[in-house]
## 1
Amino acid sequence: MTPKGQIWVELVGDLVIARVRGEPTEELLQELQEKVLFLAQDAGRAKVLYDTLEMDAPPPDVPWAQRALDEKLGSLKLKRAIVVPNSRLAYLARIAFGEGDYRVFYNDMVAAITWLSDAESE
């Protein structure tokens, strides 16, 4: 298990890609959210792919911290796909993103990207 979490956020085509490795902390999620929002606003992108395939399950307070961050989004609407390796992280993702516009995918990066891309018609 990686002792400290790591994040990478980059713009790839029409998507903001956010990767998390290891165990995230509330501070790391805050930094991740800031980077995602900067790229989303700066590049005019509203589709975000969260890659958590190498993430370790955090303590229960961490997903709640993500939900609190999302409540501060205001009028910014993001469509997010979260790719998870197992049901535990899927459950935590559902806690973290609550009522937002997102979908959880199990180990299927291609389906997640396809779903985000198909959002054009919505």
## 2
Amino acid sequence: MNPLKLFLFFVMVLFMSLPAFAQKDEDGAVDTIFAESYKIDDMNWAVNISLFNDEELLAISLPLRMSAGKTKIYADSTVFKGGRVDHFRVKNSRSDTVAQCVTIGLINDIGVSVPPVSPGRGRIATVFVSSTDGTPIQYLEIDTTTTPPGNILQMVNTKVEEIIPVFTYRSLMGDTKAKNEEAESGQ
């Protein structure tokens, strides 16, 4: 095999495995945050944020970057009602229209005894996203990011240890971006 091709193969394998090395969970299974987007209408989408955890959690920091191509979007509201963190004392969602980001911060207890998130699986929030420039939203991509002043994807367990969960995203609308790009290119 060509040495250059072999080198490129190893580099590709390394980059594909980097997300696995970023995960940090000393106890049990690796915790996971799931984001699933779906279309409400041409100008509005929603993103259900769910969590799988195998230990009790006291806090969650979840900064998300959103992209809809050239369409400018805004996370106009976040609903925690009915979710696994509904009982938390601090449930904050801060949207940044310019950076196309939303930062969700959750803390269970500020001086009052509030139970942590129990181990399990389920929705923690729903983020509603709207077009701000009157252009229909054709597709939506969500990923984690870092938002000021240093918010990263992380959780804290009852031992006050940091947990870096896995993050996964899927659109319940299928791969609309690929279909739109294919239609635009005439294929």
## 3
Amino acid sequence: MPKPITVERGLEISVILTLIGAALFLEGLSDAFGWWWDLGGWGFWTGAVGIVLLLIGVIWLVMVVMRRQRFQELIVEKSKALFVRNLDELEYTAWRLPSRFDTEVVEKKKDMGVK
């Protein structure tokens, strides 16, 4: 069963949300201070939606990057005993990342001789 698009393309979606949120927030500020253009009273709502999207995008981005870093820490393990001990966490982390990380876990298990 394929993984959801939010997992497969989580990094790209989070970056897009962050950029859209920042742009909407700046448009809302522009309307509030009269810098570039007037949105006709929609500046407050544009800024509010921008802040929400910006927060969601940044938090999502940080979580994806932290998962990838943790995966890299776990996958480079040289000791078979430590690898087996951390195998559950490694598989769970790979499950929350795109499919290519699952493939890396299978290859690492094969190299370590773990079923």
## 4
Amino acid sequence: MTRADFKFAHNFPTLTDEEINSAYETVIVMFSGVFDCWHKLPAELRQAKQNLCFSLLVGWWLLDTNPSAAVGVMGNGGMSLNSKSIGGTSLSFGDIGAPEGLKQLNSNVFGQKALGMLMAIPERFSIYA
């Protein structure tokens, strides 16, 4: 994956293509099953969903492992995101109820969005519309 392919490259402006690709190589090993998701959908839509999911996973990995390279997003140092308090405003996040292997994605906003995609794949519900 290069900077041009990474949908959230603007959030990591100082990272090189090599650093982004290294993160991509890590997440495709960790989440190789994403290549099997959405297989009942038309090829173009399936590819778009897989690319978005992998971009979110790369963002998740980069934000957890290299938070100082991030701009415009806040990480939690790899800890689960349960609540945030900024100024006088507090936010609490509901538990998505992820399976054990996916709970780690709750550590930042990129991971939570990827988790949402993975929890809603049509194969989980046999919805192919």
